[in-house]
Amino acid sequence: MPTPNDIILIGILLLALVTVESGGYFLTKVVRGNVPANRLQMSFFRAGHAHAAVLLVLSVAILAVISHAALDGFWLWLASAGVPVAAILMPAGFFLSATGRDPQRPNPFIWLLWAGVVVLTAALITAGVGLIAGGVAAL
């Protein structure tokens, strides 16, 4: 059973999906040529949009079951909040590193993507191990 804090965060994440939806509208404008974008920008905008949506939905799924994990303190926080944090960092890395007029390579904001990768990996490993341990303990 999710905690009240988890339920609040799930609500916030669902509302955040509305922003991803508006990003989809922006992408249709880019693809139709109504917003100028080069290949790098088109690729990074698509990747940022996709990562945001997938990671937000994954966050909801994890929060729905994380109360069954054998975790507490920092580890429970990482397992619960890590994927939502990655859902901010990774898309931000894609979008911000492709800003500017006709960029040919990602700019230094690409570090946000890699920070998100580290947080995502740590959160998924922690949640996975904690849920397995919680399941085994419940047998």
Automatic annotation (TrEMBL):
<feature type="transmembrane region" description="Helical">
    <location>
        <begin position="74"/>
        <end position="97"/>
    </location>
</feature>
<keyword id="KW-0812">Transmembrane</keyword>
<feature type="transmembrane region" description="Helical">
    <location>
        <begin position="6"/>
        <end position="27"/>
    </location>
</feature>
<protein>
    <recommendedName>
        <fullName>DUF423 domain-containing protein</fullName>
    </recommendedName>
</protein>
<feature type="transmembrane region" description="Helical">
    <location>
        <begin position="109"/>
        <end position="133"/>
    </location>
</feature>
<keyword id="KW-1133">Transmembrane helix</keyword>
<keyword id="KW-0472">Membrane</keyword>
<feature type="transmembrane region" description="Helical">
    <location>
        <begin position="48"/>
        <end position="68"/>
    </location>
</feature>
